[in-house]
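Example record used in the benchmark description.
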Amino acid sequence: MGLATRRVTRIAIGLLIALAAAAAIDGVRWWEAARDNGRIASGAPIAADPGARVELRFARAAAMGASAPGDAALNAYRALQSDPRLGHAARYNSANLLVRQAVVVRQGLQPGQAIPLLELAKESYRDVLRDDPGDWDARYNLERAQRLLPDPDEADDEAPEPSHNRERAATTMRGYAPGLP
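Model output (structure tokens):
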């Protein structure tokens, strides 16, 4: 029985060591998350810091976009668009910011300035859909942007062909009286 007791004690000590190691790893991750959340909340310029983790820069861009959607948030998202993991989400979120800005501009004094914003947003949604054609959120938002500013039809751009049977001037029209005596 002495051998079984030692084995159980060793297993218990091994489990306690593994549990302590897991708790230490969780503690370090919790501390990093608390530090990152403090940096985001403080408004520190995280998005411009290339040494910051990508997730932290994305979270800061999202916080900037939620509080004051503007050029700073768009620039933060644009810096992340080449990232393989978060680039898709950065393009999608920047397109959403552009649409929100366009809606605000359309309600202002110069609604024509919303056109370039909507065109950029539609192009960003199309980029997202090229990467992932099954992204239904991007499809829906592209359709909403299309309703705000429809794409011009190609047939409308072409000039209509002149009809050869059509009269050219009022003086050559049959039955036209120019009002002379």
